[in-house]
Design brief:
It is a single chain. The chain is built from six helices and five strands. By secondary structure, the chain is of the alpha+beta class. Strands 2-1-5-4-3 form a five-stranded antiparallel β-sheet. The longest helix is centred in the C-terminal third of the chain and has 20 residues.
């Protein structure tokens, strides 16, 4: 009996804003062949017939193609974390995701851990979304600068802010303590 290859992905809970690392079936070599319904067992409340993939455009700038699997027919709570990941780098438009979702790298055997997600989310929420909130669009130079800052570790707050105190330093966008949000339920 052969063992099914797995890699780490993230389960993003809409209601509690909790993020959990979960083992996922490795995607096929050709990311265009990913079948969202293969991940239905992990999204228990989802309708397998309505599962879709959403791109994470910022990850593509980094050469780390990442996708989300979500239930397009879900009437669950808005998943702000998953939706924000889909923010377009040129237009700022995002997919409104409701209910829980899965996020993973499309490269087989490429683990997506909480620290990777957190740095990605920090870059999108802290920098990219700022352009669009101010009514501007990032230029190619702005995007290149953002990519360079990401690769330099500027958005890995766990390295840079450990031990800092302050009102917003250790809070996520919902005002919850990041450690609580990242804890296993």
């Amino acid at each position: 009996m052969t063992k099914t290859p797995v890699q780490k992905g993230l389960y993003i809970r809409a209601e509690s804003h909790a993020i959990s690392e979960v083992p996922l079936v490795c995607p096929p070599l050709d990311h265009n062949q990913i079948q969202p319904e293969k991940y239905a067992a992990l999204l228990k409340a989802a309708d397998p017939q309505h599962l879709l993939l959403a791109e994470v455009p910022f990850s593509q700038l980094l050469g780390r193609h990442m996708v989300l699997v979500y239930d397009a027919a879900s009437q669950g709570p808005h998943n702000a974390i998953a939706s924000r990941l889909t923010t377009g780098v040129e237009d700022g438009l995002a997919v409104e995701i409701r209910g829980d979702s899965l996020c993973f790298y499309t490269q087989p055997h490429a683990d997506l851990c909480q620290a990777d997600w957190q740095a990605m989310d920090n870059a999108i929420y802290g920098e990219l979304c700022e352009f669009f909130q101010q009514g501007a669009r990032p230029t190619a130079a702005d995007l290149q600068s953002l990519v360079e800052a990401f690769r330099a570790g500027r958005f890995d707050y766990s390295r840079h802010r450990e031990g800092e105190e302050g009102e917003d330093v250790n809070k996520d966008d919902a005002g919850e303590d990041l450690q609580d949000a990242l804890a296993e339920p």
